[in-house]
Write a structure and sequence with these properties.
Keywords: Membrane, Transmembrane, Transmembrane helix
CATH topology of one domain: OB fold (Dihydrolipoamide Acetyltransferase, E2P)
Radius of gyration: 41 Å
CATH class of one domain: Mainly Beta
CATH architecture of one domain: Beta Barrel
Largest sheet: 5 strands, antiparallel
Shape: elongated
Number of strands: 5
Distance between the termini: 111 Å
């Protein structure tokens, strides 16, 4: 019994098999190499342009110890941590030891330094001692080093014992 349905034979297409053209792949590789070459050239030119703005190594020189000390001294004076007179005493004065006999904080501060008023008994190089009261900025981490009874570095001029500089390194 037929219901009116027709069955047709499947349509088959043809498949052609060919070998890939080696020139198609070569063109893609050549195009990739050309792009990489152009990018590398552009980066090299940019890098050379940036480096030409900088100083040559021939223009550079080593800093001497004197220049380094002068720059450091200038920084201390500029920040207000020491005066020029105190720096001169430290650089050219007589180094001695001072015993702290009293210490009072003034409440003033600069950066990580606290201002204190010290009562000192400074030892003379030739023997003997002299008392002095000195205001100094001391690192906050070294405030315990300036408590009464401690010994700190002091600098003075033998002919002028009225001016003393103290030096307390950070803890």
């Amino acid at each position: 019994m037929l219901t009116g349905t027709r069955i047709e034979a499947p349509k088959l297409g043809s498949v052609a098999v060919t070998r890939p053209d080696p020139w198609d792949m070569t063109d893609a590789v050549l195009l990739t190499v050309l792009c990489l070459f152009c990018a590398g050239t552009a980066l090299g030119v940019t890098r050379r342009a940036r480096s030409s703005c900088r100083n040559d190594e021939a223009d550079e020189r080593l800093v001497t110890l004197g220049e380094l000390v002068a720059a450091f001294d200038h920084m201390l004076v500029r920040k207000g941590l020491m005066t020029r007179t105190q720096l001169d005493l430290i650089r050219t004065g007589t180094r001695s030891r001072g015993v702290v006999t009293g210490m009072r904080t003034t409440g003033a501060a600069r950066e990580d330094y606290r201002e204190v008023e010290l009562d000192l008994m400074v030892s003379r190089c030739g023997g003997g001692q002299f008392p002095i009261r000195q205001r100094a900025l001391v690192p906050a981490s070294a405030l315990t080093r300036v408590s009464p009874g401690n010994v700190i570095d002091t600098y003075y001029r033998p002919g002028d014992e009225g001016a003393v500089a103290v030096c307390v390194p950070p803890a």
